[in-house]
């Protein structure tokens, strides 16, 4: 597999292709795979480098420095600061995520797409058809019992004991060794992220990949999106290396995420500013821990092994999560001996997370340095749901014998030692600043719709008023899904590619 990088793209370059795809993650890789297989000449432009698993396997710090957006320090600013975790590498966020695969439930499809007049543009039967081949190429399978880890076993036991639906997660991986190192880019290359599963196949069919290449703007010429202007950068120093100008004979596909897609459009002066960069939505998530007498060994088992959609229609879901010690330590309270004492409990820690299908909206805009300004604050109704979800998690921990429940919520004790103390959640603060949220599921900043007055992108996947400029990622989604979005993004991107093929 050959990928051009800053080490080979050392001189200013002019190129041409039938289709230029911006982004190599869940959306961009699927588009490139389909179009290259159909014998179109495709160039994929990716801002980040190819993953170097010999380096990223060393630590979370190394992985985020090389693979993460803004070195893993990207945040949404609002009433609180919420980390927004994204990949910036070949494979995009699929390289550092937990490989969770969820087919969008029919009621969620009806709410998110059909409810906005997009039932024909994004038909459920079309998504199902695309998901079938995608699952084959990504080797999607259900986590088996040996790889659940004790954390996953406890989660399933707790939710089944309460009569709540829960199950082992479907994941895109092959021969996973259950080392809980997904966030490091899977050092063993067992996760079927797009840099492993789809980009190589697109290249085999003739696609070219320009990595370490940041798109600056898209130029409209002769009434169509025609030229992509980009800069080759050194991914470590971020220094400029060369310029790249690519002519798109047929189409430009922006698949750079719900954050970078609107930034590219805004820098290009394209799109309805009432909607491009607006309506930003996320699933705010956070976790609490249970300390057990017996060892849990959270480093054993897959990164995220089990989840529960029992409360999905009420606006939240639950997942297990295994974190490396350096990430777990971020949420440990206390200093000195007290901090060390808590970290000594790490091997007895089970960690479970919740995600809220929040209704609050924010905004995204580009900055001169190539990063983005993200503004977002969960609303009062979202906070009510978050507080309830955390109480349910704490109850489940005690149901399966946790000696204590560890919290990181300002205004609450840092530890609950019995179910009698769960009442503290009833008066827990509703200020977003009190909760250590993180956002990994991002939506809505170039929303799709049939009416240009209320959307940025048409039902034909093209930016309203700009023929030949397609959007293929979760920026299209009018609102939050309520489930992990990777699979839906891939399915929608496949429909976009079919549209380009006619």
Rounded to the nearest angstrom, the distance between the terminal CA atoms is 29 Å
Mean pLDDT: 95
CATH fold naming of the largest domain: FAD/NAD(P)-binding domain
CATH superfamily of the largest domain: FAD/NAD(P)-binding domain
Broad CATH class of the largest domain: Alpha Beta
Poorly predicted regions: none
Q: In brief, what are we looking at here?
A:
Helices cover 26% and strands 23% of the residues. The protein has helices spanning 26-37, 53-56, 60-67, 106-112, 124-137, 145-161, 194-197, 199-204, 257-267, 325-328, 336-343, 380-399, 486-501; strands spanning 13-22, 42-45, 75-77, 81-83, 140-142, 167-168, 170-172, 208-210, 213-221, 224-233, 240-254, 281-291, 306-308, 316-320, 349-356, 363-366, 372-375, 404-406, 415-416, 438-443, 469-471.
Explain what the structure shows:
- This protein is of the alpha+beta class and 502 residues long.
- Helices cover 26% and strands 23% of the residues.
- It contains 13 helices and 21 strands.
- The chain starts with 12 loop residues before the first strand and ends with a helix.
What's the topology here?
Elements (H helix, E strand, L loop, with lengths): L12 E10 L3 H12 L4 E4 L7 H4 L3 H8 L7 E3 L3 E3 L22 H7 L11 H14 L2 E3 L2 H17 L5 E2 L1 E3 L21 H4 L1 H6 L3 E3 L2 E9 L2 E10 L6 E15 L2 H11 L13 E11 L14 E3 L7 E5 L4 H4 L7 H8 L5 E8 L6 E4 L5 E4 L4 H20 L4 E3 L8 E2 L21 E6 L25 E3 L14 H16 L1
Parallel strand pairs: 1-2, 1-11, 2-8, 3-17, 11-21
Antiparallel strand pairs: 3-4, 5-7, 6-13, 9-10, 10-11, 12-15, 12-18, 12-20, 13-14, 14-15, 16-17, 18-19
Helix pairs in contact: 1-13, 5-13
């Amino acid at each position: 597999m050959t990928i051009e990088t800053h080490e080979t793209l050392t001189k200013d370059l002019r190129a041409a292709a039938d289709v230029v795809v911006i982004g190599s993650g869940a959306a961009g890789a699927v588009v490139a795979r389909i179009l290259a297989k159909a014998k179109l000449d495709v160039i994929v432009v990716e801002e980040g480098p190819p993953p170097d698993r010999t380096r990223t396997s060393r630590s979370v710090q190394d992985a985020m420095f090389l693979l993460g957006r803004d070195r893993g320090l990207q945040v949404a600013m609002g009433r609180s600061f919420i980390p927004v975790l994204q990949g910036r590498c070949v494979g995009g966020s699929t390289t550092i995520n937990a490989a969770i695969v969820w087919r969008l439930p029919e009621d969620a499809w009806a709410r998110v797409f059909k409810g906005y007049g997009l039932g024909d543009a994004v038909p459920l039967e079309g998504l199902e058809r695309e998901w079938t081949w995608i699952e084959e190429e990504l080797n999607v399978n259900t986590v088996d019992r040996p790889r659940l880890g004790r954390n996953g076993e406890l989660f399933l036991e707790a939710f089944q004991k309460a009569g709540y639906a829960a199950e082992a997660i479907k994941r895109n991986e092959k021969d996973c060794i259950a080392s809980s190192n997904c966030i490091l880019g899977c050092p063993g290359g067992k996760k079927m992220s797009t840099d492993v599963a789809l980009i190589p196949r697109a290249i085999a069919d003739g696609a070219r990949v320009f990595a370490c290449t940041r798109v600056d703007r898209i130029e409209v010429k002769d009434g169509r999106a025609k030229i992509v202007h980009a800069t080759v950068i050194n991914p470590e120093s971020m220094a400029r290396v060369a310029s790249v100008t690519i002519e798109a004979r047929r189409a430009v596909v922006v698949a750079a995420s719900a954050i970078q897609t609107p930034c590219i459009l805004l820098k290009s002066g394209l799109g309805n500013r009432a909607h491009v960069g607006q309506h930003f939505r996320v699933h705010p998530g956070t976790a609490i821990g249970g300390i057990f007498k017996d060892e849990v060994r959270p480093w054993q088992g897959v990164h995220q092994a089990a989840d529960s959609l029992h409360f999905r229609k009420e606006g939240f879901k639950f997942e297990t999560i295994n974190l490396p010690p350096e990430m777990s330590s971020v949420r440990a309270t206390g200093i000195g001996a007290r901090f060390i004492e808590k970290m000594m409990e790490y091997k007895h820690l089970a960690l479970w997370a919740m995600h809220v299908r929040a209704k609050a909206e924010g905004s995204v805009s580009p900055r001169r340095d190539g990063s983005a300004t993200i503004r977002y604050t969960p609303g009062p109704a979202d906070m009510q749901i978050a507080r309830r979800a955390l109480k349910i998690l704490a109850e489940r921990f005690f149901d399966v014998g946790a000696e204590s429940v560890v919290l990181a919520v300002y205004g609450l004790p840092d530890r609950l030692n019995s179910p009698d103390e769960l009442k503290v959640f009833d008066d827990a603060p509703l200020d977003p600043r009190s909760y250590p949220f993180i956002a990994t599921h991002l939506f809505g900043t170039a929303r799709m719709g049939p009416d240009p007055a209320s959307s940025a992108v048409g039902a034909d996947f093209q930016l309203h008023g700009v023929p030949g400029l397609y959007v293929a990622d979760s920026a299209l989604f009018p609102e939050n899904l309520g489930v992990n979005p990777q699979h839906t993004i891939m399915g929608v991107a496949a429909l976009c590619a079919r549209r380009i093929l006619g």
